[in-house]
Amino acid sequence: MRLTIKELFELPPDGRSVIVKGWIRTKRETKSAVFLEVNDGSRMGNIQCVFDEAAAASSAAEIARAGTGASVRVEGSLVASPASGQKVEVKALSFEVIGEAPADGYPLQKKAHSMEFLREIAHLRPRTNTFGAVARVRNRMAFAVHQFFQDRGFNYVHTPIITTSDAEGAGEMFQVTTLDLDRIAKSGEPVDYSKDFFGKAASLTVSGQLNVETYCQALSRVYTFGPTFRAENSNTTRHLSEFWMIEPEVAFNDIADNMDLAEDFLKSLARVALSDCAEDLTFFDQRIQNGLLDMLAKMIAAPFARMTYTEAVKELEKTPEAFEFKPYWGCDLQSEHEKFLTEKIVGGPLIVTDYPKEIKSFYMKLNADGKTVRAMDVLVPRFGEIIGGSEREERLDVLEERIEALGLKKETYSWYLDLRRFGTTPHSGFGLGFERLMLYVTGMANIRDVIPFPRAPKLADF
RNA sequence: UCCCCUGUAGCUCAGUUGGCAGAGCGUCUGGCUGUUAACCAGAAUGUCCGUGGUUCGAGCCCGCGCGGGGGAGCCA
Fold it and tell me: Which of the nucleotides in strand B have any atom less than 7 Å away from a protein CB atom?
């Protein structure tokens, strides 16, 4: 198998014969030499292929066709570079253009492009430094997620993508149907879901949590990592309609254990990014977000700040900072509040716990005060919530009361309630939006730029 | 869904009081003894988002529509 450019860079530049295949980033021509920068995505850096006067002359016709973006094959010898700027290079002997990229149509130029423009050519943007780096980091982080949990005895559970239980309550759902909508609309008759594919209304999942809890109550340590879908009309830099979520769930863990797990998890992922994606992260540090490397190193080194919701509101109330929304006990923490707490008060990640029950989900464990629940949100500077989780309510009677108080139907949750009827245990878990982790680790500003083909309202191209 | 900004060359943008459409980069051509987002010289390139209106005259002003961005809410 052909060596990748990354692998070539690991070889000694002893003049050995090598073959480079990849795409041209830039071509520089002088009278005495031609320089081709070739990249194959195996790493951030290109390999420089140099044609001396004789080689350039014998390959002149091919070199003329080799514009930015063309796919090429270069055969030559791997040598130490006589010029500064790169340690090794390929002294080219023969050259072939595999696929041309005509300059009058190829949209990527050898210059910086805006993220907005690149978003419109999502099929070509992985050929840029930035999106190549995002793709490599995303790959490494996905693997690191599994490594983290596998190393700790967690079982990976595949929760369903299609669901007929409208139970998660985490957001608006996309309907899944095979009914002929045109015909039903024309007929004017009410929709009969008993005739639909699953015999009832079905949707794409908004969370695997309730399903994964069932396996938690059998395998103790479990996690899901898969796509989730929310039909919310949100147009922000940190929401997607289709995103990947990681949801661990641990039997017998209380909220303190849950916080420790979340903190270990984030630190472990940051550690892997710094060690295994150093070249890409250095690029992000220089070109995307200054101070990224320091921020990640600092995050790993220091324990996360922790405070209860009640303490957080007190902090917000006592500051002279003028908020658009005045904080008070019982209010949901606004973006500006979260930013103030993480950026001004603690200067790093912050875990806020024990929120008022009114602003959190039904399945969160009620505290003894009867007013707050054992929720925990991990907030980070720049964009707020990255993890949301809780200790779950394991007491059947309390859970049923909460369901009724919130106007939900008990029948809908019968299988979920069975977990409390038969061998219930305390347990805890959380959800981490994978793309939010990517924003945090890469310093990228828009969540649409850390997933290959983003889906958002009015956006499902490619 | 709400608020604000924005749409001009392939890209990023400028365009004065309403009066002949501009720059940089990219591209192309030529030059240059090893270049690093090469450099130097020259050239080509426009449905000024669409639509209706005001006006002698609209890239510019007004209405409507569409696209893009940022913020808010929802949340991960």
Answer: 1-2, 10-13, 25-28, 31-38, 67-76
In this prediction the ipTM stands at 0.91
In this structure, what token pair is assigned to residue A429? 């878990």
Q: Which residues contact residue A386 at a Cβ distance below 8 angstroms, ignoring those fewer than 6 apart? A: A266, A349, A378, A379, A380, A432, A433, A436, A437, A440
Same domain (yes/no): A82, A220: no
A window 85-124: Cβ near strand B (< 7 A): 85-86, 89, 91, 103-104, 107, 109-114, 116-117, 119
CA of A116 and C1' of B16: distance in angstroms? 30
Give residue A274's domain range: 127-171+206-449
pLDDT score recorded for residue A236: 93
Instruction: Check whether residue A161 and residue A89 sit in a common domain.
Output: no
* Model confidence band, residue A406 (pLDDT cutoffs 50, 70, 90): confident
CA-wise closest residue to A39 among A25, A54, A49: A25
pLDDT tens digits, A104-146 = 889 998 888 999 999 999 999 999 999 999 999 999 999 999 9
| Number of domains within chain A | 2
Mean pLDDT of chain A, nearest integer: 94
- Asked whether strand B has any atom less than 7 Å from the CB of A220, the reply is no
